[in-house]
Specification:
The complex is a heterodimer. Chain A is mainly alpha-helical. Chain A is built from 22 helices and 2 strands. Chain A has one domain. In chain A, a hairpin with a 6-residue loop joins strand 1 and strand 2. In chain A, about 55% of the residues are buried. Chain B is of the alpha/beta class. Chain B has 11 helices and 11 strands. In chain B, the strands form 2 sheets. Chain B has a 6-stranded mixed sheet, sandwiched between helices. In chain B, helix 2 links the parallel strand 1 and strand 2. Chain B is elongated. In chain B, about 50% of the residues are buried. The chains are: A mainly alpha, B alpha/beta.
């Protein structure tokens, strides 16, 4: 009852006209940010942050949160239509979402994503409203040893996510891990493998690499093969609405993706990206009848990950609202917005400023409904984008990719990375390598390395820490299963086949 | 002839008037860039933005905030120090990159504090050491005693490379104790590990631990400042307890060397006025940063001292 009372109080705050306006503006800016590749959520939030100072703390926070979760809605658009991830969280969507669109179902894909994002957002907000304190305590049980094993487990299972040979995928994964070691070492702050050059000191940022590997390489491919982006010759309503069978495959994936995203959002690290890989891996592992479709346009392959990254955007607020600890830069920026207003985020936030916390939560319910209402009509508009003549579209994408990458940290080096990886991506695809493991390695490598080194500092170099902590022990066991399991299964199948023959 | 005379007089007049009349060089006439050496959203960023707004009030020109993160905070300093010394590019930073990371990051186009121009200090932060709320170790003496009896058994969560490690190393050396130093990459991760009881101690800045101290999840044993904090007068200093380690983190506003003196004066005056701006004070005090204007010369002296003091430590620590 008390909880209900607080929720009602929250809605009283969120329904004030200025706060509804802030939620809508944030959601709108966020969607635009997500749609435009290169323009990061963080950048948009940083640009708008000074504006929030002219409003009350809760209004500012509502606006910033709106940008954050709004971007997760928009990020899938270009991933599906043009194979360009609008945000890191939509890299995985480029795999099956784009293939799905090529079948002429671009509108349906976008609609599934919009509805999926809405469901994931709502599930996450409910979780956030009711279990914040408990979840924060659970999250604290995960520390460096657990992160290290989670990263390892993720890598071991996800090298099997695409149809390719796991050995080939592992190779790509390790290339990604190796690339990530170049630049400033996150633990000691020293520079590594830079050959005393300034540009290598900057390291390889994820955005130019993924934009190159996926976006530019697709453009090169289209130019070389004289084909084009998926055409949308008709934009009839019928093509926008997913079929019954598409829905029935999508919604369980959305629910699972929401759960995965919610849990991953509680932990430090680039949650939106890792959650999408995890969701994709799970969907592929449990798929029975449609397994062959993965990589060729499986509904589950983008419905799950899109839901996951939306759930992360919400659950990442748990550690910051209950403990005052921001695990991602986006959330740190929201925390900064509170500090500017003279509010110290921390464990006392909920009791000292209930209007801020509950107002924010209530506004997120409203924001999610608004985003759905905003995005469904936009689907038709986005699909029409594909009717733009190819020569104009391709030129436009080149331009926007370069601008997006350059504005990120004003570095010519990043532009070289963009073009270089565009070429590398085109070659790798030509000879049949899968690109997703490389990106995965780039993301997971630094998490693994940092967590491993922290763990060894913590234990004084003793590796037994990985089996003496209960959660670590479980994760270690799962890692062993992930390595040995598939081999045993193959052996078993062979033996069964042999006995059958006999 | 008359023409020549007029020109000569005009030149003579302007020569005579130049040092005295600031209106000859109206400054600032265009927006000023305030560079911060960490990304958007952190504590430094909040301070830079608050300072920017306060400076706008007295300079009557927009102040744009530029986040140049990376290189352990040194990239932002490089951006400022290598800019045109025309007063339109200034920066805000703590002493961590300027006195500590400067020794480890290679190829910087700047070095000791004489290679840039500190306009003034605006805020001071103390480091502290905390134990868990339910720790049996009640005082700093308990910790030192336990650590001496059980070398290598206690663990401390901190951050590598910066003022945090420098301060901790100095204390551990003075106390002659062996406590395992666990470096995290930021306050958030260090505090999370400490709250999850992975380490018994946390050695971080007071603002980093403030929220946890207030709810009683972290118990401060002492602060490394020169005197007790006004907000928490019951927490002793290390110096009082017999460990002569005094360090502070200072937020300074700095510029490339060689700004015209008249513009320098305008900037310093604007910084001084910002210090008394209520909104600016609120942003800093919320983070438990002590707001105080310190003379640029005094700041340069302090920085030079830490710069020299850390040179060998930072190198052997590699």
């Amino acid at each position: 009852m008390d909880l209900l009372g607080q929720m009602v109080g929250g809605f009283a705050v969120a329904l004030q006209p200025v706060n509804i306006g802030a939620a809508l503006l944030g959601a709108l800016v966020g969607t635009a940010t997500g749609v435009l590749p290169g323009l990061g959520v963080l950048g948009a939030m940083a640009i708008l942050m000074p504006i929030t100072i002219h409003f009350s703390a809760v209004t500012g926070l509502i606006m910033l949160a709106g940008i954050y979760y709004g971007a997760m809605y928009g990020g899938s658009t270009t991933a599906i239509l043009l194979r360009i991830p609008g945000e890191g969280g939509s890299i995985v969507t480029t795999i099956d979402g784009y293939e799905f669109a090529r079948k002429g179902r671009a509108g349906a894909a976008l609609m599934i994503c919009a509805v999926g994002s809405f469901i994931a957002g709502t599930i996450s907000i409910v979780g956030l409203s009711f279990f914040t304190t408990i979840l924060a305590d659970v999250a604290l049980r995960f520390s460096s040893p657990e992160f290290c094993l989670l990263a390892l487990l993720g890598a071991l299972t996800l090298v099997r996510i695409t149809g390719n040979d796991p050995a080939q995928n592992t190779l790509m994964l390790l290339v990604g891990v190796a690339l990530a070691t170049i630049g400033v070492d996150a633990v000691s702050g020293d520079t590594r493998f830079t050959f005393d050059t300034n540009f290598l000191g900057l390291g390889f940022d994820l955005v130019p690499i993924t934009l190159g590997l996926y976006g530019l390489s697709e453009l090169f491919h289209l130019l070389a093969s004289h084909t084009g982006f998926p055409r949308a010759d008709t934009v009839r309503l019928r093509d926008m609405i997913p079929t019954r069978s598409e829905w029935s495959r999508a919604w369980p994936a959305i629910v699972r993706g929401s759960g995965i995203g919610f849990l991953i959002g509680l932990l430090p690290g680039p949650g939106s990206l890792t959650s999408t890989f995890a969701s994709y891996g799970v969907e592929k592992a449990i798929a029975r009848t449609h397994r062959d479709e993965f990589g060729k346009g499986a509904v589950e392959g983008f419905a799950g990950p899109e839901a996951a990254n939306n759930a992360v955007a919400t659950s990442a607020l748990v550690p910051v609202l209950s403990l005052g600890i921001p695990f991602t830069p986006n959330v740190a920026l929201m925390l900064g917005a509170l500090i500017v207003q003279g509010i110290q985020p921390g464990p006392l936030l909920l009791s000292q400023h209930p209007d801020v916390v509950w107002g924010l939560l209530a506004s997120m319910y409203i924001g999610n409904v608004a985003l759905l209402a905003l995005n469904l009509p936009l689907v038709g508009l986005w699909v029409r984008l594909l009717r733009v003549p190819q020569y104009a579209l391709i030129g436009f994408i080149f331009a926007i990719s370069f601008i997006g990458v350059y504005t990120m940290r004003s570095s010519y080096w990043d532009l070289c990375v963009l073009v270089g990886f565009g070429a590398i991506g085109a070659i790798l695809r030509q000879i049949g390598f899968d690109l997703a493991p490389l990106v995965l390695g780039l993301v997971i490598g630094p998490i693994f390395e940092k967590a491993l080194r922290e763990t060894l500092f913590l234990s004084g170099g003793d590796l037994s820490i990985f089996v003496t902590r209960p959660i670590s022990a479980t994760l270690s066991a799962l890692c062993v299963v992930a390595v040995v399991g598939p081999t045993l299964a193959t052996l078993w199948r062979r033996r069964a086949a042999v006995t059958k023959q006999v | 002839m008359r023409m020549l005379l007029a020109t000569t007089i005009a030149a003579g007049l302007s020569w005579a008037g130049a040092p005295a009349l600031a209106s000859d060089d109206p400054f600032p006439t265009k927006p000023i860039t305030l560079s911060v050496n960490y990304g958007a959203g952190g504590g430094s960023d909040a301070i830079a933005r608050a300072l920017g707004r306060a400076l706008e009030k007295s300079l009557k020109q927009p102040v744009a905030i530029e986040n140049t993160a990376g290189g352990a905070g040194t990239r932002g300093v490089t951006a400022v120090v290598t800019a045109q010394p025309d007063g339109y590019q200034i920066g805000v930073a703590t002493n961590s990159p300027m006195t500590i990371a400067v020794h480890t990051v290679k190829g910087l186009p700047w070095g000791d504090p004489s290679t840039y121009d500190i306009l003034g200090g605006i805020g001071i932060v103390y480091n502290t050491i905390c134990v868990q709320a339910d720790s049996p170790l009640q005082t700093l003496d308990d910790v030192v005693k336990f650590a001496k009896e059980n070398p290598g058994k206690l663990k401390v969560a901190s951050i590598a490379g910066g003022i945090n490690q420098y301060t901790w190393d100095a204390f551990a050396k003075k106390a002659n104790i062996n406590i395992r130093f666990v470096p995290y990459s930021g306050d958030a991760e260090g505090v999370a590990s400490f709250l999850g009881k992975n380490t018994e101690l946390a050695a971080l800045t007071w603002p980093g631990l403030k929220a946890q101290i207030e709810v009683g999840k972290a118990r401060p044993l002492a602060v490394f400042g020169p005197r007790r904090m006004e907000s928490n007068p019951d927490v002793p200093t290390f110096k009082e307890l017999g460990y002569d380690v005094v360090t502070t983190s200072d937020y300074v506003v700095y510029a490339p060397k060689g700004i015209p003196e008249s513009r320098r004066v305008v900037l310093i005056e604007a910084i001084k006025q910002s210090i008394s701006d209520p909104e600016f004070r609120r942003v800093l005090t919320t983070q438990n940063i002590q707001v105080k204007f310190t003379d640029g010369e005094e700041m340069t002296r302090q920085f030079t001292e830490v710069f020299r003091g850390t040179a060998p430590t930072a190198q052997s620590g590699k």
